[in-house]
Amino acid sequence: MAIDFCDFHVHTLPKSALVYGNVLVPSHTADLCSLGFRIIGTDQAFSYFPEAGRIRVSEGDAADTVIELTLEQWQGLVADLETAPALLYGNKLGAGSRGDMLQFLVWEPILRSLYTGRPLYDENKLELLDYSGSPLDPGREFCLDRDSEPDMKHYLDTSGYLLLKGVFSAQEVHAFQQVADVLREAATVNDKASWWGVDARGKDVVTRVLNGGSQSLLRGIAYDERMQQLHALMPEGLAMRDPGAVDAITVVFKTPEMKEGLSDLPWHRDCGMGGHAAMCPVINVSIYLSDATEDAGELRFLPGSHRFSCPVPQGQAGIAAAACTGDVTLHYGDVMHQAPSPRSSIGPFRSSILLSFQPEFENHRGQRHYNDVLLEGGDGHVVTPQQR
What's the start-to-end Cα distance of the chain, in Å? Predict the structure, then answer.
């Protein structure tokens, strides 16, 4: 993407509402220091300063934190292909970077808004309406054989997620769980097909397996009639990946008292490791193999956030997906969601099968999956951004 670094900052960026307007609210800027970018191998640098509800752009690298990138990497940020977490996880920052690198993460939603024009999320201005035009109930539950397709589709489009009750039987889920346990037992820390963490006892723990499609029972879910019904609720142009491919069907295993790794996921979006402009919209489907409660490590969503550039919610718990065994949730990859730690030390803990529907696209980095950057440590242990 041929964007001139200097010309963009001098002529294009001043047209952004975040630069000339007064649209930042205190929650957007509470944790912000000034941030600068420098292009590796040049003296080209610009800094961003949050001031009086807007962003002041200044030539030079006088910012508190300076991120040094190649021109191509910076252009990827502008195009919504690269992300701050991916650049940090991949150790892509230049040697001239300085300051608090976590500020890059804090700035990311504002950078997305600056570069793409996507509005910043402001819950005080958010109005979500259901299919009938009434205020949307963020905790509403649906049934495939009871609720209308237009109603369910509208709810998914508006809230960014959808909870469907009783999609799979107890017998089906029991069989899925047995196969999931086989995959978990077979996983090894360096197989590049699983995520690992460390629990309170210092034990290596599998938090996710990526090769669910290697098992015929799980692979068959892709061809189930109920998957076709779910597909009809999604935006047009989406399709499931080859169900036999690595990453096409994954299984998540929650574990209490994790000390390392990404088992307890903070607020995030599923395209947070890059590729939003290429691969979104993505709809992720979760099939629950056990009840999802606070004790079990539930999934929580921030309604409507998929339509915005969303700073990490501060002091917000979000809306819990009160899913039971056999239930299914759909959510946009770009909706903000989190997976807190189980509050109980006694299981069962939440486990679920994940499948994705997405448009046909090419990974601009040429990787198998954008999340592969999380495995670049080589031993399957996925660390937090702070640890990286």
Answer: 29
